[in-house]
Amino acid sequence: MSTPSDLSAVAWGGDAVIYVDQRRLPHDVRRERARTVEEIEAAIKTLAVRGAPAIGVFGAYGVALLRDAIASDEAFAAAARRVRDARPTAVNLAWAVDRVLAAENMLAEAEAIHREQIAMDAAMADAGLDLIPKNARILTHCNTGPIATAGGGTALGVIIAAQRAGKKPHVFVDETRPLLQGARLTYFELQQAGVDATLQVDGAAAIAMQRKGIDLVIVGADRIARNGDTANKIGTYGLAVLAAHHGIPFYVAAPRSTIDFSMTSGDAIHIEERAADEVIAFGGTPAAPTDAAVYNPAFDVTPGHLVTAFITEYGVIKPPYPETISALELRPRFGALV
Ligand code: MRU
Q1: Does the pLDDT value for residue 7 go beyond 80?
Q2: What is the CATH number of the domain that holds 95?
Q3: From the CB of 88, is ligand 1 less than 6 Å away?
Q4: What's the CA-to-centroid distance between 222 and ligand 1, angstroms?
Q5: What pLDDT score was predicted for residue 3?
Q6: pLDDT-derived band of residue 334, with 50, 70 and 90 as boundaries?
Q7: Average pLDDT of the chain?
Q8: Catalytic residue check, 85
Q9: Cα-trace Rg, the chain
Q10: Is pTM, for the whole model, over 0.70?
């Protein structure tokens, strides 16, 4: 059993990919080992490993592991496809698996992806620091901390850096229905980092902006189109609309690997829909009638015009996004530096 302070979401274990089972956090900090394609796929699908960059790192190690374990090229290709397709919205997973598949030394490539993620998270935290005023009251949604990236975190990484810089932020944490990534993971990670936080139900965001002096909203992303349209955890779009209504800046922190340069807008982003029982039950206890008809999209798409700025490892990116985001495609690979 690990202590919370030595949490590392994903690690290479020689004959397995080691991960912290995020479904059990914060009350049970448990490391598991995935060895087979079934175990790797299930860990991603069940959200035992979650967060766009973390599933990218996990999928990368997973495919490298399977290459050694599966002799037949055909069977290996099918297994790699299962890992790549385990979740459809976060582009980081497909991006990382494709990168490993194209590499001569797959394990070395997976390790490079992991190393780069840690470096990119640190660069994002630096880049975002100037956007956080002293004593800022910040609203965030879902979980974007170290356990969501296998590094230092994206949006939460910026907040933790602000705390380390003595800015004393106070974070209003949306619980993030239906799976409570905010309540279980974000609040926990903020406590670990010594950041003051207040937990609220998702529906409290509007009144928090109206009455609690929220200075800014900062969230992560699962896929970003060239025009700035951003897929992120369900509820993010509503927050962006609310922020615009209240004149509050709305920031998205994400590495370039979350940008899908094949998409000019977010219209074609595949939104994962998850099982009805995630909504019908609350913490495993049935709440609604068990035969309720349910709409359970895991993500929504925030239009780019509602995003004040993107915080990336290359710095803060402002509109017009079709130009400024596209310009990132031509920048030298950040990873070459680490
Ligand atoms: O379904 P999840 O928990 O994997 O959704 C994750 C999010 O929406 C995060 O905000 C996003 O992946 C950014 S993680 C740094």
Answers
A1: no
A2: 1.20.120.420
A3: no
A4: 6
A5: 42
A6: confident
A7: 96
A8: no
A9: 19
A10: yes
